[in-house]
Amino acid sequence: MLETINRYILPQVSSTFAADVDALFTFINVTSVIILLGITVAIFYFSIKYRRKSEDDVTPVIRFNTMLEVTWITIPLILVLIVFAWGFRGYIDMRTPPGNAYEVYVTANSFFWQFTYPNGVQTTDELYVPAGRPVKLIMQSRDVIHSFFVPDFRIKQDVLPGRYTTLWFETLTSGEHVIFCTEYCGTGHSAMDGMVYALEPDEFNAWLNEQKELSERELPLAELGRNLYTSQGCAGCHSLDGSVVIGPTFQGLYGAERQFTDGTSRVADEEYLRESIKYPGRVINVGFNNIMPSYEGQLSDDQITAIIEFIKELE
Ligand code: CUA
Questions:
Q1: CA of 148 to the centre of ligand 1 (A)
Q2: Which residues contact 156 (CB under 8 A, 6 or more apart)?
Q3: Within-domain flag for 57
Q4: How far apart are CA 186 and CA 291, in angstroms?
Q5: pTM of the model
Q6: Domain boundary residue among 215, 239, 266?
Q7: Which of 145, 159, 237, 264 is the most exposed place for a label (fewest CB within 10 A)?
Q8: What is the pLDDT of residue 188?
Q9: pLDDT per residue as tens digits for the range 123-172
C-alpha cells in the first residue's frame, strides 16, 4: 500500500539513490503519522477520562515519574538516531562520486544551463548522459546563485558563482527527466528548466561524436550564429517570431529604431548589436529589465559577428 501511495506523491524512481531516499522519507512519514495518531487518541481519551466530574474534584499534584521521563526521552532519541544514521549514510554516498564517473561541466547562467562534455561539445538546457554509468557534474555559476535539481534522481545542489560544487548520479535505465533551477535567481527563474536525456552507452557515444563533427564543420556566418543562438542561451530570452519572452525579440530587430529607458533612442545597427551583447546594461529597451548577463569575454569577436549576421537575416 505504501508503494502505491509513494507512486502518487513522489517523482519516478530513476537513479541509484532514489529508492533509499524514498525509503527514509517513508520511514519518517510513517513514524510521524503513528506518533500523531497516538498523541491525538491519548488527548481525547484523557480529556474524557479525567474531566471534572463534580465541584469538589481536586487535581492531584504529580512531581516526578522516572519511568515516564525515561520513556519519553529514550523513544524519540532512538528514532532521531535512526534517521540521523540512515540520512548520514545516504549523504556520504551522494557526496562521494565513484572514480570512473563520466564528467560533465555545468555552467548556470541567468536563465539557462550550459553543459560542456570532455571532447568540447556544448549543449544548452539539454544534458545528455550515458545510462547506467555514474555521471559527475562539476558546476559553477556565471552570475547569481542557482540550484540544480532533478526530482527523478533525488539530487539537488546549489550552483555558486566563483567556486565549483559537484553532484553525481547513476540512472537506472535510459529515459528523459526534467531539470529545475530551484533557487530563486531573478525574472527568468521559472523558465530556467531543462531535460536530462539518458542514452544507452553506444547511442550516447554516437551522439557525442556527431555533435563533435557538427561543431567542427565550417559554417556560413549566419548559420554559425543560429547555432550560437541556441548553444549560448540567447533562445531562453529572445524569440525569433516576434513574441516577447524576457528580452526583445530578434525578429525585425536589425535596422529598427529602439527606445531606451533613459529617453534616448537609436537605430539597431551592427555596432548597437555588438555593444548590447558585450555590455547589455548600457542602454535598456523600454519595457524591459536590466537582467541580461554580459557576454564580454564569453564570446569571441568572430562569434559576435556570426550572431549579428544571424539577427540581420531575421526580417
Ligand atoms: Cu536559476 Cu532560478
A1: 8
A2: 147, 148, 149, 150, 182
A3: no
A4: 8
A5: 0.75
A6: 215
A7: 264
A8: 86
A9: 999 999 999 999 999 999 998 999 999 999 999 999 999 999 999 999 99
